[in-house]
């Protein structure tokens, strides 16, 4: 069982590091909220390790080792690791799900860009939908249709994050906009990094992301009715709060370079109230046929992993990503040694 002190540390990490999820989690039942906080704390730690560290390759490889220890039942002596190990054991968490997150972070460390919207969705599946699938496992939901809609929600949330952070990412020379969109506008990644401005073309790209996210938010709602009734308000809250960021971007004319889209505490409270009302309506309405829509092809592997519940070995694609990072690390070390040798 999870140590209460570890849970408190995870709660504090989420309170300061993920305001949207912290607000939404208040509507989850304690039996789901506590493991969800542990799950999100570990995922947040993983994301920050790669996003905020200069040595991104080393950060991903350290995370690989930490995840190995979690699944071996001997986690690193840190609150988030111990708490996540307890969650893995209690809920028999399929390893393919956190491995997918690790693969997405490996892609970040690699500096990968995505030629098409489908490629962006493949990335979003790993860094966001994998977490949505893990949340379903915490709720005891293994139905493939419900999992597909949870993955829709994850992709929608990540597309919203990407739309919101275009300017901030450009300053860090990170690009998540599909490169074929830039080509259509007569731009290259380098030209955009050199002069990131909210031009009409760039704002049109942000709008396309927001519109695609909205389509997936609507699709995801059909799956909320398939969740335990006590969990529905919390998931509706996540859906409304993140979609609210998209609404703020719309109000800003899709300019996510000049300023960051922010929502207020009052707005979040309003969305929490809306979530409770939507849950009550869902309980008396017939199930939407949208529930049975095919999964996005980019998330099918997550649906399969969560539905089958297998604690399988790592996928070939993850091995390839980690091997590429290992090779990159070795190359960087060899270059550093060569530079030092020439200096002496």
Name the features:
Farnesyl Diphosphate Synthase; plasmid; transferase; 344 residues; squalene synthase [NAD(P)H] activity; mainly alpha
What would you say this structure looks like, in words?
It is globular and about 75 Å long. It has helices spanning 4-17, 19-25, 30-51, 56-72, 79-91, 96-110, 117-138, 144-164, 166-171, 179-184, 189-194, 200-224, 232-251, 265-284, 300-308, 316-343. Helix 2 packs antiparallel against helix 13, helix 7 (117-138) crosses helix 8 and helix 12 (200-224) packs antiparallel against helix 13. Helices cover 73% and strands 0% of the residues. The mean pLDDT is 92. It is built from 16 helices and no strands. It has one domain (4-343): Farnesyl Diphosphate Synthase (Orthogonal Bundle). The N and C termini lie far apart (55 Å). With 344 residues, it is an all-alpha fold. Keywords: Carotenoid biosynthesis, Plasmid, Transferase. GO terms for molecular function: geranylgeranyl diphosphate synthase activity; squalene synthase [NAD(P)H] activity.
What is the distance, rounded to the nearest whole angstrom, between the alpha carbons of the first and last residues? 55 Å
The tally of helices reads 16
Average pLDDT confidence is: 92
CATH superfamily: Farnesyl Diphosphate Synthase
The structural class is mainly alpha
Q: What is the N-to-C succession of helices and strands?
A: HHHHHHHHHHHHHHHH
Poorly predicted spans: none
Largest sheet: none
Which value, in Å, is the CA radius of gyration? Answer: 20 Å
CATH topology: Farnesyl Diphosphate Synthase
Q: What's the helical proportion of residues?
A: over 70%
* Total beta strands: 0
The level-1 CATH class: Mainly Alpha
Architecture in CATH?
Orthogonal Bundle
Protein name: Phytoene synthase
Pfam family, one: SQS_PSY
GO biological process, one term: carotenoid biosynthetic process
Cofactor: ATP
